[in-house]
Amino acid sequence: MSIPPPPGPQGPYHQGPYAPQQPQPVWGGPYGAYPRQAPVNGVAIAAFVLGVLCFVPAVGLVLGLVALRQIRRKGERGKGLAVAGSVLSSVGLALWAVSLSTGAAADFWQGFRDAARGEGTAYALAQGQCFTTPSGSLQGVTYDVDVVPCDQEHDGEVFAAFDLPRGSYPGDDEITRTADDRCYALQDAYAMDRWALPADVDVYYLTPTRQSWRMGDREVTCLFGNTDEQGTLTGSLRSDARTLDPHQHTYLAAEGILNRAMDEVPAAESVEDDFPAYGVWAGQVSEALVRETGMLRAHAWPTGSEREVADLLTDLDAAQKEWNLAAQATDVETYYEHYDKAFGLIEADTTVTARKALGLASTPPDYTEDGGDGGDGTGMEV
Asked: Residue 26 — pLDDT band, cuts 50, 70, 90?
């Protein structure tokens, strides 16, 4: 520890409150007029960054050598950065030379470019695209997918996508519940003709994982897949304005009003278990039929289907009245009486003949078969 020398001799100072003011010293330069530190060479910084990244090692090596020459000439700082950048770039060049001989560099660049664009990943899927997965399954966790033409064999077909709200990760159960509800609600906009969906097709979805959520992933992708985990699909299931003629589109849009009302059947398995809820539901179906028949009547049908649609309207009008009476029923027995009549009129042959006349699928779907339920394990995380 060094001890500073004692102060020099002091001049006499007057003591007391009336001591005369001493003149203040005048400094010979502005504040901060100390020797300036040499700047860091910018080329040296660039060489170091490129050396660390190793994306273009040849450039990093050249910049490192240039930086060393400039530092010597200009007296700048950054020699360590320039040397480190040159060394790292040299190592990078050696690695690139090895990878080029084995083809690894080409694979790396292809993977890097695909990741930057989202290609080959589940995040890049768009509505209307068909794809295969490495495992051939729509269960579990996936990242890589291969987009293929829909007329070829594939594992899934995307029909919709939506974003979850921002915020903290809501949990696997909540995401699955939301995906299940929203995807089933969105399927009719893409595949309007439910009769055209094969019996072994159900709704699946791709959802964010906790890890992808941290990276900003909020998208849920809705898709059709085969209920047999080892099964595949061939051909697009799309039936909307892009694939239908105006008459087919109008018919299916009207029919969709009734379909969505029928989907709202109460959770209770029988009318006896929740009679009030079934009464409300019957009223909703009756209102849906009013809207459906109104839409069908407002359209100008071609000559080849005009009579068939008129016959269908007769049955739908009768079904609407029966559903309305079921909604007004005061006991379960009366409810069932009108309920059975209403269902018989909806499922009458006039629906089949009208569909045939319009060139739509004419085989009623068999809902009694045990297909995928969509709400139990039909979600795939990405």
From this structure: very low
CA atoms within 13 A on the CB side of 211: 5
Distances (CA, A) of 182 to 165, 175, 201: 13, 11, 17
Amino acid at 237: L
Q: Which of 70-84, 104-118, 141-155, 180-194 has the lowest mean pLDDT?
A: 104-118
Give the per-residue pLDDT at 97. 62
**333 CA to centre of own chain:** 48
| DSSP track, 288-335 | HHHHHHHHHHHS---HHHHHHHHHHHHHHHHHHHHHHHHHH-SSHHHH
* Cα distance between residue 9 and residue 13, in whole Å: 12
The first and second tokens of residue 229, run together, are 């985990």
In sequence order, what are the residues at sequence separation of 6 or more whose Cβ sits closer than 8 angstroms to the Cβ of residue 312? 296, 350, 351, 353, 354
The answer to whether 366 touches 198, Cβ cutoff 8 Å, is: no
- Which H or E element spans position 223? strand 219-226
What SS3 state is found at 206?
A: strand
For the chain, report the end-to-end CA distance as a whole number of angstroms: 64
For the record, the structure tokens of 339 come out as 């309920």
Q: What is the spatial distance between Cα 382 and Cα 122, in angstroms, rounded to a whole number?
A: 7
Cα gap 238→187, rounded to integer Å = 10
**Beta strand pairing call for 201-207 and 130-132:** unpaired
Q: Which amino acid is at 148?
A: V
Is the CB of residue 381 less than 8 Å from the CB of residue 221?
A: no
Return the SS3 of 210: helix
CA dihedral 37, 38, 42, 45 (to 10 degrees): -60
Whether the Cβ atoms of residue 120 and residue 145 lie closer than 8 Å to each other: yes
User: Given pLDDT bands bounded at 50, 70 and 90, which one contains residue 370?
Assistant: very low
